[in-house]
Amino acid sequence: MAKPFRAVPAIPSGNERYNAKVKQLNERLEAQLPASLRLPKEIMGNLPVNVTQIPETCGLLSDQELAITALDATDLCAKIAKGELTAVETVTAYGKRAAIAHQLVHCLVDFFLADGLARAKELDEYFAKEGKVIGPLHGLPEQTPVKGKLGSAGFLSTVEFSPEDSLMVKILRDLGAVLYVKTNQPQSIMHLETVSFHGRSLNPYNTNLTCGGSSGGEAALIAMKGAPIGVGNDGGGSIRDPCAKCGLWGLRPTSLTMPQGDYLHYEMGNDGIIPSTGPMCRSARDVDFFISAVRATKPHLVEPLLVPLPWNIPEKLDRKLRIGIMLHDGVVVPQPPMMRALKRAKSKLEASDEVEVVEYLPFEHKAGYDIIRELYFEDGGATVRRVLEEGGEDILPLTEWVISPPHTKEHTIPEAWELRFRRDKYRQAYSDYWNASGCDVILCAPFPGTACPHDMARYWGYTAIFNLLDYPGFVFPSGIKLDPKIDVAYESREPLSEPDQYFRDFYDPEYMVGAPVNLQLVAKRFNDCMLVAAQRIVERIILS
Amino acid sequence: MAKPFRAVPAIPSGNERYNAKVKQLNERLEAQLPASLRLPKEIMGNLPVNVTQIPETCGLLSDQELAITALDATDLCAKIAKGELTAVETVTAYGKRAAIAHQLVHCLVDFFLADGLARAKELDEYFAKEGKVIGPLHGLPEQTPVKGKLGSAGFLSTVEFSPEDSLMVKILRDLGAVLYVKTNQPQSIMHLETVSFHGRSLNPYNTNLTCGGSSGGEAALIAMKGAPIGVGNDGGGSIRDPCAKCGLWGLRPTSLTMPQGDYLHYEMGNDGIIPSTGPMCRSARDVDFFISAVRATKPHLVEPLLVPLPWNIPEKLDRKLRIGIMLHDGVVVPQPPMMRALKRAKSKLEASDEVEVVEYLPFEHKAGYDIIRELYFEDGGATVRRVLEEGGEDILPLTEWVISPPHTKEHTIPEAWELRFRRDKYRQAYSDYWNASGCDVILCAPFPGTACPHDMARYWGYTAIFNLLDYPGFVFPSGIKLDPKIDVAYESREPLSEPDQYFRDFYDPEYMVGAPVNLQLVAKRFNDCMLVAAQRIVERIILS
């Protein structure tokens, strides 16, 4: 048997039945990854904390494979469409790189490259005969139910080999996508961290740190260039958080504008907060590329819960973009590298004639955060405990935290109605406040810092507040990474809250060195197209 | 003291405190209606069952006032805009006619004509000075919270003098609307009937019959031409049912496309089914007129729960309209006059080259009806009982029916999630079924018959199923009324269900003579504009 992959810290424990099934799943994945793609002992025994360069230096990929996997999805698909690349060579390159990535950051849960190559061959034959590609999305992996492949809702007891493709997968296949991997998500799918019965995924830029969550395996894979693009489902940050922590581009669209039918969950019908599915990318343009392609298939005709809003990114805005900068949310002050990125962005934007910059003060974010935390588990976490019990699975610290009082309690039906009414009143009050500010977008942190050390992500306010409001949010690299020489200390100020103190206490620039620093741009509900246009402007100014 | 208005049958009872407060409300309304507008004893002592002609024959209205109140809103507003009518004379005519209507069908709960006239005077002054009207909606009453006026959520304990205008009222006022009455709704707002602590509203075409509900007071008032147009809020039929029963035009739009912030309810946050607000009219074109005007104000910018869909009625459809005719829903066969109207419509439509007609068989309507009935009161009716108790108010038979098993039970949170998941799966299955039918719209009954005798409306399936699905529905007159000479008996067939037997048992063409017969046209979610265009075609063919 081949040498096992890198030991993964703190795998969740459970009873005997649990351990047996976990072992089986681990061995299954182990067996799926070809011996020819194992990283040699000299490399595995001597890993740097930043593993992003290892695919390029390990010698397992050809120059051509490295070149293919360096392309973003837009370029990749353009080259396939022109016949400059075949689907087979593309899928081969990505499959190999994904296997390498997995050994370094433990991002996969299922690996089916043979299926991907078979499909790629069909696509190449079609191209040879018809002279055109089936659709623009050749070679995109993702994580929602794929027929016959491993799926779960974040607990061992929910593992399935999915009986059908979900609608998103059907659409992607129709667009010519090739699927070859499924990626890891955390226990309960409710961590900004990725650790599950499959093990723990790591941040490619610093394996001491989390890759974020819940789509952390997906983000780690994409950051390793083991996939050109991916899909997440964001109910509290699950697209934006892992994209932010892994230095990617990601959009959480307004909810119910993208197909998400049949996604796996353990609380189906829990609709107090509706997650939203969207792309995780290696460029800003890929966000538009992905959504344009999916929307063009008119998924609202098939999935009746969807809102048929048009998708047209304006070339020009009809007035000067007004950007509110929110340096902190009144609850947790971002750690030094995030504050540096915000101030750097602010000064660059202020220096531009193209935009108008104002200070944006948070509107009762603590109150909103309290509401969404209470909404997530209206049953007081009883279902989570039941599903754990069914799998013989022990609860992880972050799962215990997310379902614990004071934020979570068991509700009667009238109490749940009252809670949802508070949600709607908050939405109205926030909207009034935003309208009064006159801002088109606000720029803020996506998390109170960069990726944190494992199991420390105990504040969701910067992403979850916009889930509560259902405002689209776009995360993207700020142009800087955590530098222990610069990002030394907080400005001296009293902590704002207990979580603020917590983030100050664990901040350690030496340990967290090299973590990407991403920013978040937010617009009001249904202003997704304007947001994408605004992000282009902001990125251009900030990165100039 | 003036002679009291017509005795109203079966006013709900209650305890002493309740009776005292009800008496106070009755006396208040009594005092608001001027003595000069009392119908003489000779008329009130000798009323026909059809009272629609009495305003024209009673001698209290001038020819000019009769002519004004004969106009639909579109014509009325056009004449005001051209200076052919003043706001003051319009409001005077409508105020007088509303007071007369109330004596005949007991439709009002608050009457504030003086306020209306003061506002009309301002509007006329503005017109004299500026040569234009403030907006297109001069002279429209309605029933949502109006600052300082009587409001309630259908129970005595919820009575208020509203502290603020609701958003809809603010918009209507900005458009130049004049408000002068509030109208009656049933206990709990959850009857297809209108009987409350204010008393019972009657059907103007046959006072033996209900005017429908929940916006029954509004429908009775409009059918009496005591208002040109009105507003309802439809969570199970509350626009469509009273419009259908009173021979009006009414549209329940796709929900959350029209402003409904601050509407009164006793279960705020109960969001398993979201009602939808829309117009109740005396012509089809007034439906478009009303919605166009309201949507043009962009209410979604103010009310963040709203979806900003465009409102543009296509002049022409891009293909031949495909109409599915559903003769019954598989649960209750419509009573003879409704079946006659459906078959008459079918044969006229089949004779037209302009449309394509197919049979539409219902898709598991009983299952859907069971789901929505269970969704309305996830608390098993506990809140209804509490709110009744608080007001010392006895429960009415239809309220008891609507909160009773088997349809209603108390849910835990996981049971409520499971119920909502069943809702979403039903929506998906229904949409798939509809898509396979290829229909653009379906034509069906809005209720299993015309208006029924009081307190008999114990089946909501024909309207509520489309609330569950959130499909827009347009009701409109079929061109016929119940004729005891023609609409004699059911075709002999076994009853489909217990409610089917119930509707057969009480059907009595002599007693129900003259009831208007309306039809319902339904489209899929968010296809409101196509639906309005389709209704124009269908109405033209059916009424030709």
Automatic annotation (TrEMBL), chains A, B:
Its EC number is 3.5.1.4. It holds the Pfam family Amidase. Keywords: Hydrolase. GO terms for molecular function: amidase activity. It catalyses: a monocarboxylic acid amide + H2O = a monocarboxylate + NH4(+). Residues 89-531 form the Amidase domain. It comes from the Eukaryota. PROSITE patterns: AMIDASES (PS00571). PANTHER family: AMIDASE C550.07-RELATED, AMIDASE-RELATED-RELATED. Belongs to the amidase family. This is amidase. It comes from Calocera cornea HHB12733.
